[in-house]
Design goal:
alpha+beta, UraD-like, Immunoglobulin-like, 2 domains, five-stranded mixed β-sheet, four-stranded antiparallel β-sheet, 12 helices, 9 strands, about 20% strand
Length: about 290
């Protein structure tokens, strides 16, 4: 690890090589190098997000995607991405806990994904099991190509921030890295968190709902990383779509609502928490904290 001061003092060539371990987009790296010196962890995180979302384009996103192995294929990592082998290997650690059946299904889904979208499946794999990633890739396969690229680029930036945290000493401890939007699902009929439920965050564009991000609830029924650190939603109307049908089937329950969609308005950069209380025949929500 290095300090921010050390990053600031590196030559342009050394800084470029160092930051390439976090994201291989030439545009992103070049502008990060030119943005030095960074005065604080907060400034570095904000600048990383600003460059990615405001100054990078589709070609830059796709270039960044080439810096990752296919999820579940750790051997390709050793051969092609030696500089980030340890980091990416740790990020995918939970893949190795999966059954052979899940790994094979994940591999097939990856091939279908790449054939449809033209780039590999990108997901922030930290703390996600192979079963979680399988559910996510299967859900994202339903997206249109023009929509999916933006979901993938959000995942890319989540990974970039995780890697910046591994590069810069104290970065994640000194900075607010919470998602602008979080959610929590509780199953009141069972008295348990609604774990393993896929949830999609959407935005309204020209009277059509477009996916922004997609995640799956953890063992506590939460998704804390719907958006990357530093990414703030513009003011407007958004929707949280809870994929309840699959959740009920997996828990041997019959639910009345195959999905639950909650619209809400974002007006500022404060934290928005959208919880859901569900049972097979009803649900409620409120603005949480």
């Amino acid at each position: 690890m290095i300090t921010i001061s050390q990053l600031n003092s590196l030559s342009k060539k050394e800084a470029f090589k160092t930051l390439a371990a976090c994201c291989v987009s030439t545009q992103w790296i070049s502008q990060m190098v030119e943005s030095r010196p960074f005065d604080s962890s907060k400034e570095l995180i904000e600048k990383a997000a600003f460059i990615w979302y405001e100054n990078c384009v589709l070609e830059d996103f796709k270039e960044a995607f080439t810096g990752h192995p296919k999820i579940g294929n750790l051997e390709s990592l050793k051969a092609k991405f030696a500089d980030t082998a340890t980091w990416a290997g740790n990020e995918q650690a939970k893949v190795e806990e999966a059954t052979q059946e899940t790994i094979e299904a994940l591999s097939e889904a990856n091939m279908l994904y790449e054939a449809k979208f033209g780039y590999i499946f990108i997901v922030s794999a930290s703390k996600k099991s192979a079963d979680h990633m399988l559910a996510i890739v299967n859900a994202r396969l339903h997206h249109n190509p023009e929509d999916e690229i933006y979901v993938a680029m959000n995942e890319q930036h989540k990974i970039t921030v995780i890697r910046l945290g591994k590069l810069i000493e104290g970065l994640l401890q000194e900075t607010d890295i919470n998602s602008h939007i979080t959610t929590h699902a509780l199953d009141t009929s069972r008295g348990f968190p609604a774990k393993n439920m896929v949830i999609t965050l959407k935005t309204k564009h020209e009277n059509n709902w477009k996916p922004v991000s997609l995640g799956i609830t953890n063992s506590d029924g939460r998704i804390v990383d719907l958006l990357p650190p530093g990414k703030l939603l513009e003011s407007g109307i958004y929707m949280m779509q809870f994929h309840t049908e699959k959740y009920y089937k997996e828990n041997n329950m019959k639910g009345f609502y195959p999905e639950i969609s909650i619209q809400f308005e974002v007006t500022d950069d404060s934290h928005y928490h959208i919880p859901l209380l569900i049972n097979p025949f009803g649900y409620s929500t409120y603005r949480g904290s």
